[in-house]
Specification:
The complex is a heterodimer of chains A (about 325) and B (about 375).
Chain A: H1 6-68, E1 71-73, E2 79-83, H2 86-93, H3 95-127, H4 131-142, H5 149-160, H6 165-172, H7 184-208, H8 213-220, H9 225-236, H10 238-254, H11 257-261, H12 270-280, H13 286-315
Antiparallel strand pairs in A: 1-2
Helix pairs in contact in A: 1-13, 2-3, 2-13, 3-7, 3-10, 7-10, 8-9, 10-13, 12-13
Chain B: E1 7-16, E2 19-29, E3 34-38, H1 45-53, E4 60-65, E5 68-69, E6 80-83, H2 95-105, H3 110-123, H4 139-151, E7 157-161, H5 169-186, E8 189-194, H6 197-203, E9 206-211, E10 214-219, H7 221-226, H8 231-236, E11 241-251, E12 254-258, E13 264-268, E14 278-283, E15 289-291, E16 303-313, E17 317-323, E18 329-335, E19 352-356, E20 362-366
Parallel strand pairs in B: 3-8, 3-9, 6-7, 7-8
Antiparallel strand pairs in B: 1-2, 1-4, 4-5, 9-10, 11-12, 11-14, 12-13, 14-20, 15-19, 16-17, 16-19, 17-18
Helix pairs in contact in B: 2-3, 2-4, 3-4
The chains are: A mainly alpha (about 325), B alpha+beta (about 375).
């Protein structure tokens, strides 16, 4: 019979304990390592479909457009694989293209500004309502999306036409009818109409987060309502203003449906020109259309970067 | 200027819908006074403050600042500044810009603004944090920025809406003293809204106790505590024992009441009460005296035999609940003036004792 002193017993126990601890640690490491590996594998598996999608339907078409913009268009619209910058020099030297750029930028800025001027008070009004009214009003803002955009633009044709809603009312009241449809004004109306929800929603989100006690604080410190609005409310709701403006400006710059259906395709905007160069002109000119699209994208990129910069400075 | 009060309210009523939030309030607040509006939440104290600031307009009645009617003056043209409960600092501006805001609105030249801003920040000891954003500051620091932002405009009256409510206990105590000393230094009238009676007692020159839109009593902290004029004030400020009964005798500023269980007690009566009317005797626990049966001298009047029921030792005081009869217990607080571990020096539950209710320490209040 062996007698263990408590200390011996203790050390024996602790050494066996140590061994198992060591084993435990190794086993744990192994599990941990496989877990990390499995996590990484899962992450790749989850990302892959999205990555493939982006590659196939975003990066690849963009690359093709970029490629096309640097080759020559043949006499029957065929592609001649010959490197050139001729498309770009065309864009920057011929008045028709330059004007289209300027006109598109101008009408997009105007649309954005009008949406902002209409959308801000509207969003502010909605925020100030009791909760159930608020939900209802937001719902009303979103309702137009239930109908196809094209259909809604046709509806505007009916409203603006020479024998449409407005002009027949004017005539009934004894006024002379005015030319509304097929003017640049009609295009602007259509654009503002279509884009207003995109301005209102981000503005609503930003104003909803605004603490209106700050307006009282500003008034308390001697600011008139105008000063309080400009110095406190505008900077603090700037994220909404930026998001709304970007959401309105981007699609407007490339649009072609509204100017065709309401503006009567009388003047060329970027979107109309690009669409025509690809699909309608005889012969079609894909390389030139591609160059136009590329320049438009660069313009947008520059605009957005600039806008983010100034709005962040405003915030500071 | 010294004769016209800094703030005067004449019969001011403010209704939100049907119910009046502020009901016929008349107040005169003197120049350089530290004046508190004290009451439970929903008593109309904040609404009163907001009317002085100009965020609300009275439904009827008049509001004057240094004798000038404020009926048509918007908040940004009033000579008052507010420290908001939530501080309402502008999060997109630095501490310095926050403090400069009011001066910029006055269109002061830049070279005048800068020194005044740094002076105001020094006043609240925040000069070193001038470039920080509000969200980089602690609650106490934000509170001091809010104070500097208001004081830099040198208002005729400073309004404070529960400014210490969001601070923890220790910081609160510090800020109370700091605010009080600040008020002495700048000499501006402070109107301080709070629901914390201890805070109001500590800081104020005068207090208006409000409940349900009405001002119940206006007076110095001592007056409010020692001579409440109604049951609500006695109950809201500090602790007290109420004994309901019927007036049996009134003479020379004192009234006696008899309770249904047969106690007869005497106390000061602020108003003469006709015999037969219902009244309440209010006596604060620290103003009752408890003695052992042996200590009782022959000259003591109105000694009530009681048994000690509960004893709580809370360090500075011992709080004792004594039972008079089946239905009635009263609270008695004794200061522990002597340091001892001797159990006999303290009351024990079950002990028999005599309770004295000195008429000069008790108040008889009408219902």
């Amino acid at each position: 019979m062996r007698l263990y002193w408590p200390s011996e017993q203790g050390s024996a126990a602790s050494s066996s304990c140590k061994r198992t601890k060591e084993e435990c640690r190794l086993a744990f490491d192994l599990i941990e390592r496989t877990r990390v590996q499995r996590d990484r594998r899962n992450l790749m598996a989850l990302l892959l479909p999205g990555l493939l999608w982006l590659l196939l339907f975003f990066a690849l078409p963009l690359l093709i457009i970029l490629l096309y913009s640097f080759i020559v268009s043949g006499p029957r619209g065929n592609l001649i694989w010959q490197a050139t910058v001729g498309n770009y020099t065309d864009l920057f030297t011929r008045a028709i293209y330059l004007n289209a750029y300027l006109r598109s930028i101008w009408i997009s800025l105007l649309t954005t500004l009008i949406c902002l001027l209409l959308g801000y008070p509207l969003a502010l009004f909605i925020v100030r309502q009791p909760p159930h009214v608020r939900t209802l009003l937001l719902f009303l803002v979103l309702i137009p999306f239930w109908t196809n955009f094209l259909v809604r633009i046709y509806a505007w044709q009916i409203i603006l036409a020479n024998n449409g809603l407005i002009n027949s009312s004017l005539r009934a009241l004894g006024f002379a009818p005015i030319q509304l449809l097929n003017t640049e004004g009609a295009t602007l109306i259509g654009l503002v109409y279509g884009d207003l929800p995109f301005m209102v929603l981000p503005l609503y989100a930003a104003i909803d987060r605004f603490d209106f006690t700050l307006m009282e604080a500003a008034a308390d410190l001697g600011a008139s309502r105008r000063q309080a609005f400009l110095r406190v409310m505008v900077p603090l709701t700037m994220p909404g203003i930026v998001a709304g403006s970007v959401l309105v400006f981007i699609p407007t710059l490339g649009q072609f449906v509204v100017s065709e259906l309401l503006g009567g395709a009388k003047v060329d905007y970027l979107g109309n020109l690009i669409q025509r160069l690809f699909l309608r002109s005889n012969p079609p000119n894909w390389p030139l259309g591609s160059a136009m699209a590329i320049v438009m994208m660069l313009l947008l990129l520059a605009f957005i970067l600039w806008y983010f910069r100034i709005s962040r400075e405003e915030d500071r | 200027m010294s004769d016209t009060p800094a703030i005067e309210l004449r019969d001011v009523i403010k209704r939100f819908g049907e119910t009046p939030a502020v009901d016929r309030v008349s107040l005169q607040i003197g120049d350089g006074e530290f004046f508190s509006l004290l009451g439970p939440s929903g008593c109309g104290k904040t609404t009163t403050l907001r009317m002085i600031a100009g965020f609300e307009y009275p439904s009827s009645g008049e509001m004057l600042i240094h004798g000038r009617s404020m009926a048509t003056i918007p908040p940004h043209r009033r000579p008052v500044n507010t420290v908001f409960q939530s501080y309402a600092l502008f999060p997109h501006m630095s501490v310095e810009q926050n403090v400069a805001f009011g001066l910029q609105m006055q269109r002061l030249p830049k070279q005048e603004i800068a020194p005044r801003v740094s002076e105001a920040l020094e006043l609240v000891r925040l000069g070193h944090l001038a470039q920080r954003r509000p969200n980089q500051l602690s609650g106490g620091q934000q509170q001091r920025v809010a104070l500097a932002r208001a004081l830099v405009n040198q208002p005729e009256v400073l309004l404070l809406d529960e400014p210490l409510g969001a601070l923890d206990q220790k910081l609160r105590k510090e800020m109370q003293l700091e605010l009080k000393s600040l008020q002495h230094r700048v000499g501006i009238t402070f109107i301080f809204v709070t629901h914390d009676q201890e805070e109001a007692l500590t800081m104020s020159d005068r207090i208006a106790v409000m409940n349900q839109g009405k001002v119940l009593q206006v007076g110095s902290p001592t007056e409010i505590y020692e001579r409440p004029t109604c049951r609500f004030v006695a109950d809201f400020i500090g602790e007290t024992n109420f004994i309901d009964g019927e007036v049996v005798e009134s003479d020379g500023g004192y009234s006696s009441i008899v309770t249904p269980d047969g106690l007869r007690l005497r106390g000061l009566a602020p108003r003469t009460l006709p015999a037969g009317s219902a009244a309440t005797l209010s006596i604060r626990p620290e103003k009752l005296r408890l003695t052992t049966l042996e200590q009782a001298g022959p000259e003591q009047v109105a000694a009530l035999p009681v048994s000690v029921e509960l004893v709580s030792y809370i360090g500075s005081d011992t709080r004792i609940t004594v039972r008079l009869n089946e239905q009635r217990t009263l609270d008695v607080w004794e200061q522990n003036r002597r340091s001892t571990l001797d159990r006999n020096a303290y009351w024990q539950p079950g002990e028999q004792a005599l309770l004295f209710c000195p008429p000069d320490n008790a108040l008889v209040l009408a219902e």
